[in-house]
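Key result, reporting period 2: structure in, sequence out.
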């Protein structure tokens, strides 16, 4: 339970009012339950003549709790006798039966009230966990997702959160209610016979110990099962993304066998967890019955010896209360099983929630609203893994309004270099400055607000064309969106679609061609109107006609902006103010297109290969 409160305590703290209400309702339910049971005792004693003693009415004088209980017990017997004497046994049974039904109504109403107060707590905690995970995913650096499988992250957000809902949240009622019932019932039992109750409490650890043995490995087993299901989700995600390749290479059977293997491993792990969990009820039932038998023997022994403070007639009520105590104990142990499963899922979720974000802002970051002079990269080194540098001693300056280009073979560090400017990653050493200010001293919001991106893969969301263009721009009007689309050469094809700007583009823009997706992403950048523009091979995946339209749109976008362009097709960057050639993480050449051709170096070789 300690681990449970450590993991979930911060979520409970947000719903203190509901917890207090639930607690109060369950206290009432426990009290009404005790009263409803207590009514049966004088009826049984009088109707079946178990107790022939005559009772006199005692004054309800204030005294100790023991005295008050004794008076209440005596007067209960007295009123029962009076009813039998005046109304007869049958009428008395009916009256007390009605009273029993009324108390049961109050008990069930209080119980329902406690459960109803718990619903906002249950649903709220699951909502809060989902929101916290999503916010954390948005805040984590890109490096986190390059190390984690997408399917595993999806499994944690979906399956693991559902497991918490099914195991922890559904157990909250038992966690809050059952301790209250157990405390109230044990208090009554102590009041009736402390010797017998003390003996009972010595037996209870045997019950708890037997159940505890079963649940000991439940968390680790659940953790293993959940990891196997994450493998399955990852394979489904990979299959959906690579379905074209799977079919092209006739690899359906191979993928099916691969998924069947991991699915069987999950099934075996889940089966072990389910078997262990299903053992809880029969084991607790058997141990509970054994405890009742032992207490029955010990209580009978005390009564036969004449050493007991409890009468034989009251012993019936004692056994009823003891048996009633067993059910909350069983429910509490059952909740313990569920919580262990949920904690395994919470541990997996915490790998996201507690993941370290190494892109941190300084205590008082500065806001930047415009690029006034230049961007400087000074002795920049970077590595994803310590000891394996991707960029080595990069030095370059980009003046305001200039267009610079980065060229080189795949893996030379071009995309990594431009990712350092908006701080998707931080430099290992050296500094990146905008107008002389280190980007690490700037607020991330204002820094990234200066930069617009157009990538090789146009990333669109499953939404309308209008919302994709207006993405990230508050309160964009129809006229502004259309103006941006016209500059991007996208307006004409948008208007030819069935619903114009309100047409849904499908998952990742799947209903559009590559050139159309790219022009919409350019329109998005135009609408944002950033002073710094990063073009990451924006035309490399397009056909000739689409490339011409996109290139025309890019040239309009680049006007009066500071542009950093990554290009494999050298023809698209011939007019750049300066071209930097990267090879194995180092700048090996720099200059204009003509200057680099004259140098007859690496750039000339790339240019000749493309011309050929």
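The corresponding designed sequence is given below.
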């Amino acid at each position: 339970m300690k681990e449970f409160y450590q993991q979930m305590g911060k979520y409970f703290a947000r719903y203190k009012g509901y917890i207090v209400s639930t607690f109060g309702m369950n206290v009432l339910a426990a009290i009404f339950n005790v009263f409803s049971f207590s009514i049966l005792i004088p009826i049984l004693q009088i109707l079946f003549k178990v107790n022939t003693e005559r009772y006199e009415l005692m004054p309800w004088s204030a005294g100790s709790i023991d005295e008050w209980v004794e008076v209440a017990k005596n007067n209960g017997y007295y009123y029962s006798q009076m009813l039998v004497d005046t109304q007869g046994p049958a009428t008395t049974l009916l009256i007390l039966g009605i009273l029993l039904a009324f108390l049961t109504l109050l008990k069930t109403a209080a119980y329902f009230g406690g459960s109803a107060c718990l619903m906002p707590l249950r649903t709220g905690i699951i909502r809060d966990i989902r929101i916290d995970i999503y916010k954390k995913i948005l805040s984590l650096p890109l490096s986190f997702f390059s190390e984690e499988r997408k399917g595993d992250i999806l499994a944690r957000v979906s399956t693991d959160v559902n497991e918490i809902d099914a195991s922890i949240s559904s157990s909250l009622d038992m966690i809050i209610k059952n301790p209250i019932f157990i405390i109230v019932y044990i208090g009554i039992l102590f009041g009736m016979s402390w010797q017998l109750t003390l003996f009972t409490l010595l037996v209870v650890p045997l019950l708890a110990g037997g159940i505890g043995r079963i649940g000991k490995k439940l968390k680790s087993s659940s953790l293993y099962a959940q990891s196997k299901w994450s493998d399955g989700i990852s394979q489904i995600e990979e299959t959906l993304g690579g379905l074209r390749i799977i079919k092209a290479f006739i690899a359906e059977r191979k993928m099916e066998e691969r998924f069947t293997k991991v699915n069987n491993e999950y099934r075996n792990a889940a089966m072990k967890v389910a078997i262990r969990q299903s053992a809880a009820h029969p084991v607790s039932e058997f141990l509970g019955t054994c405890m009742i038998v032992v207490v029955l023997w010990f209580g009978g022994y005390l009564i036969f010896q004449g050493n007991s403070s409890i009468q034989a007639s009251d012993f019936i009520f004692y056994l009823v209360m003891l048996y009633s105590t067993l059910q909350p104990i069983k429910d509490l142990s059952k909740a313990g099983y569920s919580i262990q499963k949920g904690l395994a899922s919470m541990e997996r979720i915490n790998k996201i929630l507690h993941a370290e974000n190494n892109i941190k802002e300084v205590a008082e970051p500065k806001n930047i609203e415009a690029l006034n002079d230049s961007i400087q990269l000074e002795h920049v080194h970077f590595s994803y893994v310590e000891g394996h540098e991707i960029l080595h001693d990069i030095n370059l300056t980009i003046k305001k309004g200039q267009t610079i280009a980065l060229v080189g073979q795949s893996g030379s560090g071009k995309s990594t270099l431009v990712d350092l400017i908006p701080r998707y990653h931080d430099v290992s050493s050296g500094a990146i400055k905008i107008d002389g200010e280190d980007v690490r001293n700037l607020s991330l919001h204002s820094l990234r607000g200066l930069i617009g991106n157009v990538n090789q893969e146009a990333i669109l969301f499953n939404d309308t064309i209008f919302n994709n263009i207006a993405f990230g721009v508050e309160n964009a009007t129809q006229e502004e969106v259309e103006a941006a689309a016209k500059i991007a050469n996208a307006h004409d094809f948008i208007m030819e679609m069935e619903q114009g700007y309100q047409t849904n583009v499908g998952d990742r823009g799947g209903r559009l061609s590559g050139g159309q997706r790219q022009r919409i992403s350019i329109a998005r950048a135009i609408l944002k109107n950033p002073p710094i523009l990063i073009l990451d091979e924006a035309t490399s995946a397009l056909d000739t006609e689409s490339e011409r339209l996109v290139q025309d749109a890019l040239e309009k976008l680049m006007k009066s902006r500071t542009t950093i362009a990554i290009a494999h097709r050298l023809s698209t960057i011939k007019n750049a103010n300066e071209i930097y050639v990267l090879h194995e993480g180092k700048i090996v050449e720099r200059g204009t297109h003509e200057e680099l051709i004259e140098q007859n170096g690496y750039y000339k070789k790339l240019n000749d290969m493309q011309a050929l």
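The chain has 22 helices and ten strands. The two ends are 71 Å apart (CA to CA). This case is discussed further under Risks and Mitigation.
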